[in-house]
Structure formats: structure tokens, C-alpha cells
């Protein structure tokens, strides 16, 4: 059985994941190398450190049967709610947002952990209650609440991007699990009818800068020196990259600090300016390979929990990739979503690698699922 598990190991995922991570480290090094003259550890070195820790977790989770994770899903969920409440009570505030819990030597972001936990707990619930004829609306109340409760707590921090990132995979899993067509149509109709009310509630819950980001999305030129500045500079950076880019340290928008948050939310613009269309095409192909591997794993999974879990992970990964690239291109609002494996950040890097490790875990155990 162990031999068959090892046969399911997919080196393609390791190679593609490593390649994207190295591209991110190079981009972080390029945009921050001028700031590394001080005594603190350079950001690109920290990113390498987080990547190594993340890869360690990636390998570690391969030795844990993913069914065991599902067994304790509700315990994880309770712990997550406690952590999110602690953030609101004693969390560390940075740039007006209270998202971090300080543990002395380092801080971590529970909202990133929420992505991992919510996908697991909803996958467990849906797989336990699989209905051949599909779900009624009342059947979806519990999984919806599982997503809504942490979403509200994360919005309070505030962290709009991560909150939206919880809703999308849960919705995907519900649809895949079998929502009756008639019920789906009813949900869609009710959504249209209640949209004005829900939008008003949503709009009032946003901070001022978050409202400005949405307005800026509609018309970036309305505030070119304010909230529209990032999007306009990002478009300039991407467009100026040309076919083959300006090379490492060659991007004027990034090197001259015209592009804020270049090592985090807007790292795609930095990469596009330095490596051009050719580099962007290669990067998109690498992301597409991961998505195609995930689709294959979800399709071939032999149990409901594995299929739901793989679908949730895949939709989460695709959501973050598409939204981040979309907001740097100005076709989606700026909601502070990191680009998986590239944007600077320890918690995001580790969480993403754990997700990918779970995908490979499902693949490795698919062929032996019914042998024990």
C-alpha cells in the first residue's frame, strides 16, 4: 500500500510550485534590495525562510491521511472562531487593520488560517450529508453559516479580500455537491430581489478606504493621486514591460517607488514590468498547470470528502490568483488579495503550501482508498 501511495507523488506540482515561489523571491529582492542596507533581515531572505517553512509543512502533511483532518474538522472550526475573536479583542493593529496575533518573536494572521479551516469543515459537512437528489435550501443553512460567521468576524478586522475568499470556495463546493436546479434558480431570483438591501448592508459595513477602492475600480481617473494611484501606476508598470521586460532592477515604476505595495498585493505588476509579456505568459502557464492538476485530482477522487476538499482548495487558489491579477490590471477592485506563492507574507505562503500539500495528499491516496 505504501508503494502505491508513493507512486501517486506528483513531481510536476513540486516543480511548478517551486518555480513560482522563486519568481516571487526574485521580484521581492528586486523591489526591496535598495532598502536592505539597514540591520534588519531583508524581506527576500524572510520570504525564503517562510517558503522553506511552508515546504516543510507541505511535506509533513503528505504523511497525514486527509481523512484524519476531516475527523477533527469541527474542533478546528471552534478553535478558528476563538482565534478570530481574540484578534478583535487583543489583535495587533497595522495600517488601520487589526488582523494579527502577536506571539512574541513573530505574528500570524488567523484570517489566513480561516481559509484552510472553512474549506475542511464545509467539505466534511457536505460529504457526510451527500444527497443523490440534491440539496434543498434548508440543507444549505448550516454550511452557509459555517462560512458566514468567520466572514463577518474577518470583515470586522477589516479584511475584505479574505472575507470574499471564504465565500467563493464554499459556494463552489455547494454547487458541485448537488444543488437542485430548481432550488438554484430560486436562490438566484431571491438574490436579485434582495440585492439592494444586501448591498446597503455590505456598503455600510465597509471602511471609508474600502468604499473608495470600489469607486476607484469604476473610475481610476477620478482620484489619480489618491486611491486610483495604485491601479494607474500598476497599469503603467505592466504596459511598460513590453515583450521581454526591462530586466531585474530595470523597472522604473517599481524601482523609483511609484508602485506602492510592490512586494505584496502588486507584485504581479513588478514582475510584468521586469519580465514582460514573455515572463507573464510563462507565469500564467505555471498557474494554469496547478489548476489543471487540481481539477484532475478533484475529478478522480473516489470519496466525497476528497472531492469536496480538492474542489474547495482549487477554487480558493483560482480565486486568489484571478482576483490579484485582475486588480493589478484594473479589471477588478483592489481588495488586498495576495498572489499565491509570490506575494510577500509568511502566513499566506505557509497556508498556500499546506493547501497544495493537501491536494497532493488526496492524489496519493486515491488509488489505495479502498484497500484499508
Number of strands: 3
**Distance linking N and C termini:** 9 Å
Number of domains: 1
Order of helices and strands: HHHHHEEEHHHHHHHHHH
Largest pleated sheet:
3 strands, antiparallel
In terms of quaternary structure, what is this?
single chain
Number of helices: 15
Shape: globular
Name the helicity range: 55-70%
Global structural class? mainly alpha
Plain-language structure description:
- The chain contains 15 helices and 3 strands.
- By secondary structure, it is mainly α.
- The protein has one domain.
- The chain has a 3-stranded antiparallel beta sheet, covered by helices on one side.
- Helix 6 packs parallel to helix 8, helix 6 packs parallel to helix 15 and helix 13 packs parallel to helix 15.
In brief:
With 372 residues, the protein is an all-alpha fold. The protein contains 15 helices and 3 strands.
Which helices and strands occur, and which strands form pairs?
Layout: H1 2-7, H2 11-32, H3 43-62, H4 66-71, H5 73-90, E1 92-94, E2 97-102, E3 107-108, H6 110-128, H7 141-155, H8 160-178, H9 181-205, H10 208-218, H11 229-240, H12 252-255, H13 267-300, H14 304-329, H15 346-366
Antiparallel strand pairs: 1-2, 2-3
Helix pairs in contact: 2-3, 2-13, 3-15, 5-6, 5-7, 6-7, 6-8, 6-14, 6-15, 7-8, 8-14, 11-13, 13-14, 13-15, 14-15
Keywords:
three-stranded antiparallel β-sheet, 3% strand, 3 strands
